[in-house]
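As described in the Methods, two query proteins were run sequentially through the folding procedure within a single session, without resetting any intermediate state between them. The first query and its resulting structure tokens are shown here.
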Amino acid sequence: MIRKADIKDIDQIMEMYSSCVKGMIEAGIDQWDDTYPNSEVIYKDIKNSTYYVKTMNNKIVGGVNIDQLQDKEYLDIKWEDQENLFLVVHRLAVSKEFWSKGIGKKLMTFTELLVKKKNLKSIRLDTYNTNPMAINFYKRLGYTKKGEIFLKPNKNEYYCFEKLIS
């Protein structure tokens, strides 16, 4: 089941991120660490009613923030959706033990349904350039790389992706 997160979910959500980040670091991906994503960021997402969780047997196994807020660096990208009728995916994560089990795909399919429900046209997101798992995942789902941005000091560039939803 996918549902909006509640404040009472925060500990389980952070456990899920901890598992995901540990797996990413083991795979040589330094996109995230023990400082990000953090509970303050997730708390704001939940308060804004934009954070969703995927549960299995009452356990949170994945999560994503879906809103219309994009980093200012996104303004430099040549998006196909020129009407700016988009949702932005932030902080998509799955517990390491549930990787390659379709959880991320379910969360992205859910995002596509939200786009349709809100009469929007596209999804935008970014991922770290040294995260081949995420890059290939988004490409398999039909996302197109639209450009590169720098978001954080001492980090490589992030690739921006877009998918038009009909």
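Immediately afterward, the second query was submitted; its sequence and tokens are:
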Amino acid sequence: MSTPHRDLIADQLALRDLLHRYADAVTRRDSAEVASLFTEDAEWLVGGYGQPSGQREIAAFLDGLLEDWTTIVHALLSGRVHLHPTEHDRATGRWYISEFGKRADGSDVCFAGVYHDDYARVGGLWRFARRRYDSLFRRVGQEVTTSPFPSDAPPFH
């Protein structure tokens, strides 16, 4: 029995499009669109803020995170994708991001951090199965907090 053909470039592009769709939806504050990019049983771990599971919880969680923001821009800085060599519907990724904007109280906000992702192809479409966000830099007004790259980060192959 032969192994089905896998288009590595198409998978890479589709996964990168998933990340771009996520950034676009966060910037537009469209929590329903963000949630639709996750699998039904996905986990989203945001250190210090929460760990919603499933699309409904993810949408509500994002709404809560952004309720005090008047403007947000979610920007992808750089990243990598690793396609699982034998499970063609699985992949992992590591992406560095920045978010900046303004809160309702007038304070400027700038965050930078790293996402550790597990992806699953469901119904022919790539989705987030698990996202973990670790903050590396956080500035709210004049207060700045930095953190090293997490020592317990998932390995990236």
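The first helix runs from residue 8 to 27. We note this only descriptively and draw no conclusion about the first query from it.
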